[in-house]
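Researcher: Re-running this chain for the archive, since the previous output was lost when a drive failed. Same request as before.
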Amino acid sequence: MHASPDVTTQLTYFGPADTPLFGVVCTPRDGRVRGGVVLCPPLGKEQADSTRGMKLLAERLAAQGFLVLRFDYLCTGESAGAQDSPDAADAWLGSIASAVQFVRDAGAETVALVGLRVGALLACQQVDRLGPLAALVLWDPVVNGRHHVRGQSALHNMSVGPVDPADERVHLVGASLHSTTAAQLSRMRVTADVLAEDQRLPVLCAIRDTDLELPVVKALGQRGARVAPIGDPTRFIASETVYFELPIRAVEVIARWVDAVLPKTVAPVNVRQQMRITVGTGAGGPDIDKSITVLPGGTVVWETAPTDSPRGVDNLLMAYSTANDIRTGPARLWVEAGDLVAGRNGRTIRFDRPGVGESGNVDADDDFAPLYTPESVEQARAVFDFAAGRPSRIVHAGLCSGSWLAAHGGCWPEESHVVMVNPLMWRLRARTFDTAMAIASGAASQPVDSTGAGAPWSTRAQARLRGTLGPSLRKHMPYPLVGVLGAAGVVQAPRLLLRELAGRGLRPDVLFSPWDHERFTVNRGPKAVSKLKPDRRPQVTVTPTGDHPGLHWAVRAAVLDRCLSALAEPGGDRAAVQW
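Model: Regenerated structure tokens:
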């Protein structure tokens, strides 16, 4: 299943000028469509993780002749609004109305709605308020808001980390909600009333196999909805690894059904594209410009800056996400960082690596974009060259594999500072982490023997050595041997990267969650720090709680503090920044 060359993709802002939304429009290249389809995404980590799968569906539907709009609700993703706003739930619902109106204004006379997970729950609350709809698709729907909020909150506490009892927000995996918003979401339900007996709205329920017996699914089927099993979407919507399995079966089911129920006649559409907006901070600070640029080669870049600020003479934050994480970062970290930096007269650059988020078309084989590659360094450099100008202060900040790119950024000729969050790779030399390496390390979506025949010989050998040289042995082996084995790729040796950065005059900030600091300690990181000259030792911060992906608020707050502090002070000890 490959993207059609006859599909055009446009990134745009739309909706009210004071509360703009971000969206992506896919259309047939000739600009003539059979109708419009609005895709309503999930919330939290599910929203970010499903980006490529939703993009795959959008491109497939556009190839069938539809104008397809994917979008971020207000208070999520690239759209306006704070995620912990007390009015967020109303804003989400209003966003669906704005999206449908945008599609109609472009000239699509008939509109279908597709909701994934919480997107299906929200869509059901709005069906009667959107005017005539041509069809409704409930894709792996969350049917009970209370169960979802409780489940995601419990999962956050177990897998991300405990929450400060004084924090009144409700933390889900990948989102922090105001208690009012969480209560409103908890009251929402999907019921068979979405398909009233006197209505003829075609409804497709694309249901995971384990939910086929749910009472609401049976009730919808009895009222005429088409119920289609789609298998187990867990590896698409809630993968526990760096891999996200594309929802090939679900996309096929949905695309064929929409193709069958919507009209065949075509009409021209005209999409009004807007790639730059200005938003107010509402706190007496400067207005903020937000813009989108597609570089040659397809890398998509987001820039946030104070309005009317001379480009190239301000402070600059370059933010690098990890693995398949999109440019927003964990729980919208980098978006919020950009707004805070702009409020202090600085710029922030974020981007999607090729094969991630909005950069490049999707096909069935791109479930993982390789990490730690020479090409990724070149791509990051191209983004920096586009953005840089002559900033007075540059900070490269990244999470996990993004911290490796940030370290490379610190080594470029321009003087800069580096913030590394939960790094796992401790040498600059590229060593590609691709599908074969992921299989060998156990990070692939399919359970595979890490020393089996599916991986290259060198990878299998290193996997065996890692198994032999367990944490307890590494902790007690002679320190020089750690460096030798690190250079050979057998173990991770912080001394290699820290020494190289120190040799280039860099003193990075290094932030760890408790789990990551334990790995750092096992790999003799504290010893590596002590071996450096005092003025070249990194400033190490360990959060009291938190997780490796950076979803926990404690990790996100520490990252924001370090980035803002590094931009504010040219060197030395930096006091915490309050916001």
